[in-house]
Specification:
- By secondary structure, the protein is mainly beta.
- About 10% of the residues lie in helices and about 60% in strands.
- The chain is built from 1 helix and 14 strands, in the order H-E-E-E-E-E-E-E-E-E-E-E-E-E-E.
- The strands form 3 sheets. It has an 8-stranded antiparallel barrel.
- The model has no long low-confidence stretch (mean pLDDT about 80).
């Protein structure tokens, strides 16, 4: 009986040591922002987790050499951001809050509990951005509704239908790198 238990234990430990065929690196960054204004104190917590996973593969895996070299494999990076504001936690893949420029004017896109708000250069709310089911956005200003998305460079691209010309007008807000 004792031999069977020791044999099963040794078998389970050997399975555990064979199962690790990935390099995993995880980094969590938490930022707490407190804003005091005439309405009171607002506290938002932003937690960013970056996880890097790399499969371990060996060069010449079929050879009988004892020490084998590791083959370079691509690293898969996953970034997740959780933002808690006004008691609501929202998990987003990429935070698009930044400053954008259009026609020499600087606009700010800031996250809120339903999506994003866009503020004009004078600080007034110019538009809202709401996420759709296919990772695009509906852009709603006073008298303008557009379809929007973020391109690979992080720029905000708006596509607006002009019924006078029967064409789609593309407007690009260029991200300001800081």
């Amino acid at each position: 009986m004792k031999t069977i238990i020791l044999g099963i234990t040794a078998f389970l430990f050997s399975l555990n040591s064979q199962a690790q065929n990935k390099n995993v690196k995880s980094e969590v960054k938490t930022t707490v922002t407190t804003v005091k204004d005439s309405k009171g104190v607002k506290k938002s917590i932003k937690t960013q987790e970056v996880k890097e996973v790399q499969n371990i593969e060996l060069k010449d895996a079929d050879s009988n050499v004892l020490n084998k070299d590791v083959k370079e494999t691509p690293v898969q990076v996953t970034a997740t951001t959780a933002i808690t504001a006004d008691g609501v936690t929202k998990i987003i893949d990429v935070d698009r809050s930044a400053y954008y420029e259009l026609n020499g004017q600087k606009y700010q896109v800031a996250i809120d509990k339903n999506g994003y708000n866009m503020f004009s250069p004078d600080g007034k709310e110019a538009a809202v951005l709401r996420k759709t089911s296919n990772n695009n956005y509906i852009y709603k200003a006073k008298n303008n509704t557009s379809f929007g998305y973020f391109d690979t460079n992080g720029n905000l691209v708006l596509e607006t239908y002009d019924d006078m010309t029967d064409k789609v007008i593309i407007t690009t807000y260029m991200i300001i790198k800081q």
